[in-house]
Amino acid sequence: xxxxxxxxxVPIEFIVAQCLKHGATGIKPVKLAHQVFCDLEPRQxxxxxxxxxxxxxxxQQLQAFGNGxxxxxxxxxxxxxxxxxTAAGDVLNMYSIFSELWAAYDPPLIxxxxxxxxxxxxxxxxxxxxxxxxxxxVNMTSTPSAGDTFGHGTNVAHIIAGLDGAHxxxxxxxxxxxxxxxxxxxxxxxxDAVHGIAYVCSLVExxxxxxxxxxxxxxxxxxNISAGAPDLGDSTSPLRIACKAAKEEYGLQIIGAAGNMGxxxxxxxxxxxxxxxxxxxxxxxxEFSAWxxxxxxxxxxxxxxxxxxxxxxxxxxxxxxxxxDYVSKDGTSFSAPIVSGIHGLIWELTRRVYGDAALLDxxxxxxxxxxxxxxxxxxxxxxDNIYGLGAPAISSVISKLISGGGGGxxxxxxxxxxxxxxxxxxxxxxxxxx
Length: 434
Prior knowledge:
434 residues; 18% strand; globular
C-alpha cells in the first residue's frame, strides 16, 4: 500500500533512513513538501508512525470532476468522459466575451507573459487551438503518454490559452506547461500531484538561476488544478503542504476548482480547500446565480470558501479526440481556467502601465475584499460560502480609462481598472451573454 511519510520537524534524510529501516520500498522523497512516498505493509506503517517527528498516512486519491456530481460530503462520483453535454445554443465561448477587450489595445491585450502549468489529464497539443502553446509536457502517471486520452486537460488548456479563430480561450497569448497527474481514466493520487507541483517549482528555480523575469515563457507563474479529493481537514496533507510551499517559497499562484459536490456545505475539495489555493466556484453562465452543484464552504477547518466564482455551464473547450472539434461542458473544472486566463489579461495591462517588473496576482486582488467583485442582488456583501468574494469584475468594455504609465505602485492602478471591469461584467451578466 502506498503511504506518505510527513516530517513534523525532522530532516527528510532521517525519514528516508527510517523508511528503509522499517522495510519500505519504492521510496520517493519530495523535499518541497518535506515528505517521502513509499510502499509499506499496514503493520510496517503503524510502527513507522510511532517514530517521533514522523506522521504516516495513506496516499489520498484524486480525480477529474468537470462534469458535475451528485453532491454529498466526502464522496466523489466517477469521472465523466469527454462527450459534449450542452446543447449547441447554450455554448459559452470565451471569444464572445473577451475579443473586444483584446482588440481595445494596440498591440492586442491577450495575456502575454502568462505561463500556466496545467496539472490534469494531459493535453492534446496538436489541436488547432493549442499549436505552439504547450512548451513542455511531463507525465507523472503510469500511463504511456502525456497526451489526453480521457478528455479533460485539453478542455482546460483551451479555456486558458486556446487560439483558433472564433474558438479561443481567455488569454490566447499565454503559454502552457502540460503536467499530467491524472491517468487515462481521470484518476490520480496526491503523490502524482505533489510530484507535479515539485516539478513546476524546479522550473521556477531554474528560471530564477537564468535571471529571467516572471514574464518569460519558461518561467511558470500559475498552477491550474481542476481535480481534487474530499477535504479531510488534515493540515499535514501532502498536497496541502506542497501547495503552501509552492506559493510561499516559489511565488506561484495556485488556482483550483472548488468541486461539483454542492449544494451541501463543507464540500470544497482538496486542494482548493487550503488557504494557499484560490478556490473557484461556479455560477450559471446565462443568469447571475450559483450553479447548484458548485461546492460550498465552510471548509472542515472553518475557512470561508470558495474564494471567487465564475461561469460554469456550457463552457467550450477543445476536444481531445481530434485536432478540429470542440465540446462544451459544465463544472467548476472549467471555471478555474477562466480565472487563470483573466489573470493574464489583468497582469499584462498592469505591466503596460507600470513596467515589466510590475507584479499582480489574484492574491493581491483578493486582498481588497469585495471591492473588485460583483454578486447577485441579495447575496452577502462580504465573503460568503456560496459566492466567496463574488465574480471578478472584468468585461470587454474595460480599458480606455487607463492610458500612459510610469510611476506609482501596483495598488494605485487597481481602483480605476477594476471599477470599469465591474461595470462591464455586470452589464454582461444582467443582459445575458451572446
